[in-house]
Amino acid sequence: MANYSVRNQVAIISLCSPPVNALSSDVRRGILDSLKKAEQDVKVAAIVICGEGRTFCVGADITEFKSEFKTFPNLFELVDILESSPKPIVAAIHGHAFGGGLEVALACHYRVALSSAKLALPEVKLGILPGAGGTQRLPRLIGIDSSMQWIAFGDEYSAQIAANIGIIDRIFPSNADILESAVQYAQSIIGKSLINRRVSKLPVKDASKVSHIMEKYKQIVGKKSRGAIAPMVCLEAIKHAALLPYVEGMKKERMGIEALMGSDQSKSLIYMFFAERQVRNWTIPGTGINSKNTKPIKVEKVAVIGLGTMGRGIVLSLLKAGIKHVSVMELNKTARENGLLFIKNILEGYAARGTISETQKRSMVDALKPVSNFEMLKDTDLVIEAVFESMSIKKDIFAKLGQVCKPSAVLATNTSALDVDEIAMVTPKPKQVVGMHFFAPAHVMKLLENVRGSKSSPQVIATAMNMGQRMGKVTVLVGNCHGFVGNRMFRHYTVETDFMLEEGAYPEQVDTVLKKFGFAMGRYQVGDLSGNDIGYRMRTKFEMTNKQQPPGAPERER
Ligand SMILES: CCCCCCCCCCCCC[C@H](O)CC(=O)SCCNC(=O)CCNC(=O)[C@H](O)C(C)(C)COP(=O)(O)OP(=O)(O)OC[C@H]1O[C@@H](n2cnc3c(N)ncnc32)[C@H](O)[C@@H]1OP(=O)(O)O
Ligand SMILES: NC(=O)c1ccc[n+]([C@@H]2O[C@H](COP(=O)([O-])OP(=O)(O)OC[C@H]3O[C@@H](n4cnc5c(N)ncnc54)[C@H](O)[C@@H]3O)[C@@H](O)[C@H]2O)c1
């Protein structure tokens, strides 16, 4: 749906489809009907398109993809109708202008935004391409090179960056009223010629360099998005913007999206998009307790015990989440020094790349608090233990934590496979104990399995889930069993690859085949990164390390 009103010669078309103003068929119809009203009203001299609620528009409604194309106007028809309007249209952007939302904005004659707004053409992450003129209009506005960067990787950019390269015409402070500001802006452009404002009519500035730029991006995409079809199709479509008139380029874009939509890769990525959101709605089976009726405790001070492979990544994730007090406890002096150096080097790298500012980096370094004894953890809200995978060491640590930590403190273990209930039993309050199972490297990997012990309280679970989301992790609640979910899945894969070694393959051969198939890393690279001792300890626990068995003996007998 879209609402329509008129204020001082300016018609306002406001998208109204909570929570994110996705462009469903009703919204598209609403925009078109409102546009007709505005064009017919002689008192209207300019038009503003804005979004109600928290955001401008996140693009096509992904839930309607199957029926998207049957109802008039579909998105690629709507953008051309908007652009050809005889009255100037201003897109007023706050929150997100993503995908089809940005394509609508590109079809408007002017674009203004709050400085806090984010812009992206992220369709490639759904295995498709921007199919409403994005691959043809963006190059006409910002050139082939930047368009390839935006479209083939789908990353989001700040409104300021978008303004610097010519997408946004005027930025307003983040606390301004976007609608009021846009209406005033629209009044200021009344009567101006639209000749240079219709993006589809503009030339592509760096068109002559297209072959060279294409080659560069083919190489980058080949490395960064190995195995993915959509990024290459995006590059092809953008190339056509340089070589063909707009109408012909649009035909190529259309062929691209028709080829991609419904592909196995796109279906899987769309499934993943919704699955990653669905897991936020956790429940404890059979109890009626769930994410909607349970509140997390407030977490300000966190401690991490053990600064090895996992601990250092967990600390970085906490710092990136903005936790202002992260205590770190590591027994081994060399491991402590190496761990702290690793963390500081990674933060330096983020600052050098502009991912964080120098001020943010300094405040993250200041948030790091090395501690040497358990007493120093007494007012910590959440402790995450990441020491060796040994039940006796973990029990020793949890017994001490149980004695010193305040009663409300959440005590989490990063164990890969040990019984969370057995660890919880050594504390006076087992309901405060939960598993928080990160994956290596913990500051990079997005998955976090929170393990629900039989005694973990709902509030403790809510706190672990909330913490995961604060860290930007895809946070999944799982039951307490050997290896939880991730490692139980991974185990079958490792068993098969280990059989291949026994049959004569080298680890690097196995890894090469897996990477060629599309895996980001080979199985043995993962082993080296995580530490092969972890798997060894798990197998030893299940008495699977008898070296005398012949190759091919059933895995259970080793
Ligand atoms: C078979 C051959 C046919 C060929 C025909 C060819 C014709 C082609 C014509 C097609 C034209 C379409 C072209 C267009 O380019 C395509 C698109 O626009 S695809 C969509 C692109 N946009 C995105 O991918 C954005 C996706 N969303 C996000 O990344 C995030 O939501 C956000 C914008 C970063 C905001 O994040 P948050 O604030 O954290 O919010 P949530 O993620 O939790 O979202 C809240 C809520 O909204 C739901 N949702 C979000 N985006 C969409 C969406 N685009 N469609 C539907 N629903 C959406 C999300 O699932 C959450 O729902 P909840 O979990 O709360 O139920
Ligand atoms: N490596 C992985 O891929 C991975 C993935 C998920 C979970 N885990 C789990 O995370 C935990 C840590 O694994 P890791 O790979 O980081 O191990 P690691 O060997 O790299 O690091 C463990 C660190 O803990 C320190 N330590 C040991 N006892 C301590 C104590 N009492 N107090 C303070 N520090 C102590 C050690 O000195 C060492 O630096 C294990 O339970 C493991 O199963 C590991």
TrEMBL record:
Places the protein is found: Peroxisome
Pfam family, one: 3HCDH
Domain 3-hydroxyacyl-CoA dehydrogenase C-terminal positions: 483-548
Protein EC: 1.1.1.35, 4.2.1.17, 5.3.3.8
Chain segments annotated as coiled-coil in the UniProt record: none
Domain 3-hydroxyacyl-CoA dehydrogenase NAD binding: 301-480
Major location category of this protein: other
Keywords: Fatty acid metabolism, Isomerase, Lipid metabolism, Lyase, Multifunctional enzyme, NAD, Oxidoreductase, Peroxisome
Organism superkingdom: Eukaryota
Catalytic activity reported: a (3E)-enoyl-CoA = a 4-saturated (2E)-enoyl-CoA; (3S)-hydroxydecanoyl-CoA = (2E)-decenoyl-CoA + H2O; a 4-saturated-(3S)-3-hydroxyacyl-CoA = a (3E)-enoyl-CoA + H2O; (2E)-hexadecenedioyl-CoA + H2O = (3S)-hydroxyhexadecanedioyl-CoA
CDD domains named in the record: crotonase-like
Pathway(s) this gene product operates in, as recorded in its UniProt entry: Lipid metabolism; fatty acid beta-oxidation
Oligomer and partners: Monomer.
Family: In the N-terminal section; belongs to the enoyl-CoA hydratase/isomerase family.
Protein name per the record: Peroxisomal bifunctional enzyme
Organism listed in the record: Clavelina lepadiformis
